[in-house]
Known about the structure:
Layout: H1 3-9, E1 12-18, H2 33-48, E2 50-53, E3 65-71, E4 74-91, E5 95-113, H3 114-120, E6 134-136, H4 141-151
Parallel strand pairs: 1-3
Antiparallel strand pairs: 1-6, 2-5, 3-4, 4-5
Amino acid sequence: xxxxxxxxxxxxxxxxxxxxAKDLESEFYNKTxxxxxxxFFKSQLAVDGEYKIRRASKFATYKDTLVLFQxxxxxxxxxxxxxxxxxxxxxxxxxxxxYIFDKNNILTFDPISEKDFNNLVSLDCYKxxxxxxxxxxxxxxxxxxxxLKNIAV
Length: 153
């Protein structure tokens, strides 16, 4: 992830929760964080740059966002969101659209716990890792990018 170039482009930081619940995201069912990094981020997202979404994971904004992916109550990956495409008809599985990520700016790393993340960034209140999307103040961008650069695997 080229943090110098991205720092100039990023307008928002969001946490996107992913779930291993069979009824919500069956493709992630019963996977570990390490399996998700290998099978989804390194093998799929890094190839096509697309993440299909359901209504529950839709952001209010789409472009120029640093997305931190939360899985099993940990941040396990980061990517730069370039765009969003809305589907005219809901696809099989209830997908309403897709996020389009920069394939050259996807990063996996040793998972970051909720506690460690909250110690890293300055927030008005503690962010619990739940199924809600969180918007992180962009004033935390440099510290997040520096931290990610140092822990990337």
